[in-house]
């Protein structure tokens, strides 16, 4: 009888621990879902076009850049399906810029909430990332329409866009963790990052192809995760003539590991820095 009682008690304890573990991880997920919905709804609240702005912004930028660089400067000469080639680069960069720009002041903007409620701070950054990710998926759907109109041949390589999008999400998230935590102490970060992103837009192979720059510069560019992601995405979706890091480095497969390692190491270091700093957020915001 004693053994049966002990077994029942052990079962109750185990069940209680499982429920506690479930609640521990369920709460952040529920909070994340609510923050994502709220952020997505409020972003264009009060505007006449609403959610359409998430599609129109990259399209307007595409139109301006296409007219200036393709029609006037003839920069797209020799690049197959250049309109789709350019639009894909703009869409991926827009997501990266949106995630990082919105994350910089995300913690400070939620200062009142941080002082009133104890919850995992990383949820704030994840919510902004997932909200922007919805915009990314919508813009990729628009790209699909452009590809159909432009009669871009789609092969089985198109499925490889999935790991590339995951890599993009990880890299943007890593920088978001770092920038948001740093901004709490140093408010100049927002201005520095804005200037950096303006310069980085033209430094990255978005408007032009890496084949149009010296090989030494192309090698440096493609070690950057953003440049590698953009060129690989163009290769798998638009044209197999888009130079990738594999081509630039003479067929060395291992070089692909460099930008991947940068993404993963950046995420680990940034998440660690964010976690260490998060205990002081409520006091400093």
TrEMBL record:
<keyword id="KW-0472">Membrane</keyword>
<feature type="domain" description="ABC transmembrane type-2">
    <location>
        <begin position="49"/>
        <end position="277"/>
    </location>
</feature>
<dbReference type="InterPro" id="IPR047817">
    <property type="entry name" value="ABC2_TM_bact-type"/>
</dbReference>
<comment type="similarity">
    <text>Belongs to the ABC-2 integral membrane protein family.</text>
</comment>
<dbReference type="InterPro" id="IPR013525">
    <property type="entry name" value="ABC2_TM"/>
</dbReference>
<keyword id="KW-0813">Transport</keyword>
<dbReference type="GO" id="GO:0005886">
    <property type="term" value="C:plasma membrane"/>
</dbReference>
<keyword id="KW-1003">Cell membrane</keyword>
<keyword id="KW-0997">Cell inner membrane</keyword>
<dbReference type="GO" id="GO:0140359">
    <property type="term" value="F:ABC-type transporter activity"/>
</dbReference>
<dbReference type="GO" id="GO:0015920">
    <property type="term" value="P:lipopolysaccharide transport"/>
</dbReference>
<feature type="transmembrane region" description="Helical">
    <location>
        <begin position="85"/>
        <end position="110"/>
    </location>
</feature>
<feature type="transmembrane region" description="Helical">
    <location>
        <begin position="122"/>
        <end position="149"/>
    </location>
</feature>
<protein>
    <recommendedName>
        <fullName>Transport permease protein</fullName>
    </recommendedName>
</protein>
<dbReference type="Pfam" id="PF01061">
    <property type="entry name" value="ABC2_membrane"/>
</dbReference>
<keyword id="KW-0812">Transmembrane</keyword>
<feature type="transmembrane region" description="Helical">
    <location>
        <begin position="191"/>
        <end position="210"/>
    </location>
</feature>
<feature type="transmembrane region" description="Helical">
    <location>
        <begin position="51"/>
        <end position="73"/>
    </location>
</feature>
<feature type="transmembrane region" description="Helical">
    <location>
        <begin position="253"/>
        <end position="274"/>
    </location>
</feature>
<keyword id="KW-1133">Transmembrane helix</keyword>
<feature type="transmembrane region" description="Helical">
    <location>
        <begin position="155"/>
        <end position="179"/>
    </location>
</feature>
């Amino acid at each position: 009888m004693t053994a049966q009682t002990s077994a029942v008690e052990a079962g109750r304890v185990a069940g209680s621990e499982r429920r506690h573990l479930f609640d521990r991880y369920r709460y952040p997920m529920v909070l994340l879902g609510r923050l994502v919905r709220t952020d997505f709804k409020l972003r264009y609240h009060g505007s006449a076009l609403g959610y359409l702005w998430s599609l129109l912004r990259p399209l307007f930028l595409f139109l301006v850049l296409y007219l200036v660089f393709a029609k006037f400067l003839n920069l797209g000469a020799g690049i197959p399906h250049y309109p789709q080639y350019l639009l894909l680069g703009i869409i991926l960069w827009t997501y990266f810029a949106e995630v990082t720009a919105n994350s910089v002041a995300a913690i400070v903007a939620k200062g009142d909430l941080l002082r009133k409620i104890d919850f995992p701070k990383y949820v704030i950054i994840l919510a902004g990332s997932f909200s922007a990710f919805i915009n990314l998926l919508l813009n990729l759907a628009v790209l699909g329409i452009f590809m159909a109109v432009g009669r871009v041949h789609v092969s089985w390589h198109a499925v490889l866009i999935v790991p590339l999008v995951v890599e993009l999400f990880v890299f943007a998230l890593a920088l978001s963790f770092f920038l948001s935590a740093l901004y709490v102490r140093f408010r100049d970060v927002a201005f520095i990052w804005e200037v950096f992103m303006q310069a980085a837009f033209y430094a990255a192979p978005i408007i032009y192809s890496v084949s149009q720059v010296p090989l030494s510069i192309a090698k440096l560019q493609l070690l950057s995760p953003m440049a590698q992601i953009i060129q690989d995405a163009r290769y798998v979706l638009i044209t197999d003539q888009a130079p990738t890091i594999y081509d630039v480095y003479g067929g060395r497969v291992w070089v692909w590991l460099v930008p991947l390692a940068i993404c993963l190491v950046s995420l680990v270091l940034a998440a660690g820095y964010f976690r260490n700093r998060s205990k002081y957020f409520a006091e400093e915001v």
